[in-house]
Amino acid sequence: MRQDVVIIWYSVNRKGEFDVADNNTLHMVDASDGGNGFMKVQLNNPRFIFPSIMSDVLPGKELEAIDVNDIDNVKATLANFIDKMDVKIQSPAIRDNGRYFVGPQASISGTEPINYNVKSSEGKSESDIGLICLFSIISYYALSKFFENYNYVPANLNVVVDKFATALPIDEIKIKGVQQSYAKRFADYHHQVTINNFSTLVHVDLSFKKVFFDPEASQQLRV
């Protein structure tokens, strides 16, 4: 796990605040340094580190849905959401849309974990793993903040990432067109993430406004 990227934040209007009148919308600034092994993600202020793995959710292997009226159980689950990420992804940016366990839950799900293949010629910008892991943790973080503020589980949330910074390998970032095509995977679409842990499915509409890149091993990753 790399430890050499420093994430520096600049404030944006409405950062970290829900606008309930505007369809439960949360505005954020995020940064991610993910790759083989671990994801390091900063969402507004909190920072998270978790394994960059996922696994298919097979029939009969789903987690038991938590009753949204069981507030104590919901609260306990969202306090440790990084360990129980179960999502359905639907996005034009993803080649293999589907339902996945993400992060620690993927390692104990009983199905083969999917991670970066370091022997593959596929570049980091072409892989689905980094995007699925990132979309998942952003969605769970947004839900946890909503629940913290309003004490119930909503059916729908909108998350707008006003500024997003990430890193690409030095050799990859130099290839003509890579930065532009990778940025399009984030900014050209709305990404649909369904959180499956609760008796009410939570549908998250996720979009990115501005995307910035730095080479891996640089000293600062800025938003």
Task: Describe the protein in words.
It is a single chain. By secondary structure, this protein is α+β, with helices and mostly antiparallel strands. 22% of the residues lie in helices and 34% in strands. The protein is built from five helices and twelve strands. The strands form two sheets. Strands 2, 3, 4, 5, 6, 7, 8, 9, 10 and 11 form a ten-stranded mixed beta sheet that branches. It has a two-stranded parallel sheet with strand order 1-12. A hairpin with a 7-residue loop joins strand 7 and strand 8.
**How many strand units?**
12
Can you give the helix content as a percent range?
10-25%
Decide which structural class fits the backbone: alpha+beta
- Distance from N terminus to C terminus (CA atoms, Å) equals 22 Å
Order of helices and strands: EEEEEEHEEHHEHHEEE
Q: What kind of sheet is the major sheet? A: 10 strands, mixed
- 3D shape: globular
Low-confidence stretches: 1-15
Contiguous helical run count: 5
